[in-house]
Amino acid sequence: MQEVNFKNERDKYFKEIENLNHPNETLVKTHCSYCAMQCGMNLRVNTKTNKIIGVEPRYDWPVTLGKMCPKGVTAYQQVNHNDRLLKPLIRDDKSLKGTNKGFREASWDEAYDLIVKKFTELQKTYGKDSLSVYSGVSMTNEKCYLTGKFARVGLQTRYIDYNGRFCMASAAGGLNRSLGIDRGSTVPWTDVHETDCIFLAGSNTAECHPTSMFRIWAVQERGGYVIVADPRETPVARRADVHLDLRPGTDLALANGILNLLIQNGYADEEFVNNHTNGFEETKQLVKEFTPEYTSELTGVAPEKIIRAAELYGKAPNAIVMFARGIEQQIKGVDNVSAYTNMALVTGKIGRPKSGVATITGQGNGQGGREHGQKADALPGYRKLAYPEHVEYISKIWGIEPEEMPKEGVSAYEMFGLMEQKTIRALYLLCSNPAVSAPNLNYVREQMKNLDFMVCVDFYLSESAEFADVVLPTTTWAEDEGTTTNVEGRIIKINRAQMPLGESKPDWQIQVEIAERMGRGKYFSHLKTSKDVFNELRLASKGGIADYYGVTWEKIDKQDGVFWPCKDESDPGTPHLFLDKKFYHPDGKAKIFALPYRPSAEEPDQEYPLRLTTGRVVYHYLSGNQTRRIQFLRDMSPEPFVEVHPETAEKYGINHEEKVRLFTRRGEAFYQVKITEAIRKDTVFVPYHWGHEKSINLLTIGALDPISRMPEFKACAAQIEKLELKKVQ
Ligand SMILES: Nc1nc2c(c(=O)[nH]1)N[C@H]1C(S)=C(S)[C@@H](COP(=O)(O)OP(=O)(O)OC[C@H]3O[C@@H](n4cnc5c(=O)[nH]c(N)nc54)[C@H](O)[C@@H]3O)O[C@H]1N2
Ligand SMILES: Nc1nc2c(c(=O)[nH]1)N[C@H]1C(S)=C(S)[C@@H](COP(=O)(O)OP(=O)(O)OC[C@H]3O[C@@H](n4cnc5c(=O)[nH]c(N)nc54)[C@H](O)[C@@H]3O)O[C@H]1N2
Ligand code: SF4
Ligand SMILES: [Mo]
């Protein structure tokens, strides 16, 4: 196959940039604030005002080589935006809860005093666990780590969970179960363009991880193949060699059908299967039933496409199976991950360069944020609260007695259930906007409204902040330093380009100050800088699966990031996992899983005959609280819409751009119709980046995967209603 060399192109541009000379500007090397690609960028800073004024791509960053998407090139506009929160806010008028009114500005002291008074009172009356912390992973590793410690040691509550429960939890569950380790990608991204076949399931890569695309297209340019499994003909599906246009929620059948063909057609690697895996025979028996015809019946994909996909993946010398939220945000998310991972394990296409499995992580620090103890059941270094020796180790690092360590909590969505029951009375919310991003929003918003006390930490007043009693202003990513762990499992450095705007403070500092006022200063006061927090994290992760002990900020700088595990200072890190064919289960073997097909939580019926699936557009990020404020992004994508196939539109008698009522058993919303052949006839799609009455999550279902507790954002039953034309006067 042909070779491609992106390096020449990169060097050319890099030299041009080096020659630029702006007397009043300095460049700060850093990475984008948004997705897990963490594209390399230089922030341009005016040296007279010390303010960020622009951005340049970094051609010297080996992962993204100067590529950025529309969100990345405008990300810097967040920092000095007019909507920034510059002082703490206190709600005086409780009757206005759920709106952005009824707040007044306050000093930090007043805000802290109120928080500590309320938290202490509630804990005195209802017990320590009446408080909860709900967090997110747009934060650095330092902040994520400290948030776990803040909840368990600072506030002494068991209830902490985070938005990764809506994002990475099923991938984590499936990879841990199959491979014994959850590092999103088993290979570095610099391998991606060199493989021979990419099997991409439930990933709208061109819109969600756009700067991966040059590597994916390069596979085809070199004579290799791209296979895409998605109910929609996304940009990557359009140019794919095979587009498996399945019904939402039927991946388990598709993966079993392909595995069956791989085995029947002699692509199983017997030597690999025998020496390095368990579970093959049982799985082989189970998938026999999934003939191309039966698989087609369940998935709606034509049998010849299934046969071709299996053939292309099977005969490729090297191949990478990649997946994202399309397969994971289902009540079968964990099973789907294991089922697609089976393809690599049965064919032995894992544990060597250019072959492997990757979940394409979501948020900027989607990987690192799930490793260091923000999850209800987890402790730093991917340790578990369920193991006494793990609790003992972390207790020692934190300076508490093991008996003092709070027990496991519950998952993000389940916390709202405990709010309903009044077990949880107060919420400390940071770095997430569940009033937009959680499923079944009518229910979730009600629970937030009924809390006794709520704190929200953000740099803009989000839809969730509207439910808060106190809002604390924090810094954007460019006003603080620390590390994130990108899509590859590479730990990288975010640098500070500007001092905090107004009175805003970084999350870690706010937590140290609250802990001190809660009388827990002895566990926090030594943390004076973000680097102090990182050094504590290194120790806390030492010996764990996600071992960061050998990572230093200096090493990150010197070698363009460090892949974990990295055990000591002489260890350069681990770009490729399993090169020694040792998986992370006690016997060193990976597990192949026999997974029977099962339907979605809510299948279409006469009343609700359509399948609703949800996701993203390239111009907006998650709940949209950041990107909806950027003029260019808002101009490009001002409103949500519902994608409908032309034949379906005809059936309902609805036209392009007509507003319709879309509804499910849980709620309704009104959207403009976007008629497109790029969607199945039985499916409709709505992006979820808008708040209030425009949120598609008013309609989604709160059904959870039994293992990962991930909500089923990707499949529920829905119906469309044409609106009666209003009489024009
Ligand atoms: N522009 C943009 N980029 C982002 C983000 C963003 O908000 N905006 N968010 C970041 C984050 S946190 C995440 S998690 C990632 C998400 O990245 P992706 O997972 O790629 O994004 P989604 O749009 O949620 O879903 C991906 C695809 O799954 C398909 N799908 C729906 N149902 C099914 C199904 O049952 N089976 C299969 N096989 N496919 C299905 C959808 O049609 C969609 O094209 O993106 C990251 N990057
Ligand atoms: N229907 C549907 N719903 C979904 C999904 C879907 O595909 N469909 N996807 C799910 C997924 S994958 C995800 S990741 C979630 C994400 O959902 P959310 O967690 O709600 O995502 P964000 O919009 O990133 O919310 C982050 C909030 O914190 C603020 N923020 C950003 N950085 C920081 C920081 O460093 N500190 C603090 N304190 N605040 C900060 C931002 O301004 C924003 O208000 O949504 C989930 N919801
Ligand atoms: S691809 Fe992701 S990291 Fe890169 S510029 Fe876009 S949003 Fe930022
Ligand atoms: Mo996500």
Shape: globular
Strand order of the largest sheet: 5-4-18-17-16-6-7
Instruction: Please state the average pLDDT score.
Output: 96
> How would you sum up the major sheet?
7 strands, mixed
Proportion of residues in extended strands: 15-25%
Q: Classify the helix fraction into a percent range.
A: 25-40%
Quick rundown:
The chain is an alpha/beta fold. It has 24 helices and 28 strands.
Question: In words, what does this structure look like?
Answer:
The protein is an alpha/beta fold and 729 residues long. Helix content is 31%, strand content 17%. α12 crosses α13 (303-315). The longest helix is centred in the first third of the chain and has 19 residues, at 108-126. The relative contact order is 0.15. The mean pLDDT is 96. The structure holds ligand MGD (2 copies), iron/sulfur cluster and molybdenum atom. One ligand MGD is lined by residues 35, 167, 201-204, 207-209, 229-232, 234, 246, 248-249, 251, 324-327, 362-363, 613, 615-616, 618, 620-622, 685, 714-715.
Secondary structure blueprint with pairings:
Layout: H1 7-18, E1 25-31, E2 40-46, E3 51-57, H2 70-74, E4 89-91, E5 103-105, H3 108-126, E6 131-135, H4 141-154, E7 160-162, H5 169-179, E8 197-201, H6 205-208, H7 213-221, E9 225-229, H8 235-238, E10 242-244, H9 251-264, H10 270-276, E11 277-278, H11 280-287, H12 292-299, H13 303-315, E12 319-323, H14 325-328, H15 333-347, E13 356-359, E14 378-379, E15 383-384, H16 388-398, H17 412-420, E16 426-430, H18 434-437, H19 441-449, E17 453-458, E18 470-473, E19 482-485, E20 490-494, H20 507-520, H21 530-541, H22 553-558, E21 562-563, E22 590-591, E23 610-615, H23 631-636, E24 641-644, H24 646-652, E25 659-663, E26 668-675, E27 683-687, E28 716-722
Parallel strand pairs: 6-7, 6-16, 8-9, 8-12, 9-10, 11-22, 12-13, 16-17, 17-18, 23-27, 24-26
Antiparallel strand pairs: 1-2, 2-3, 4-5, 4-18, 14-15, 19-20, 20-21, 23-28, 25-26, 25-28
Bound molecules: ligand MGD (2 copies), iron/sulfur cluster and molybdenum atom.
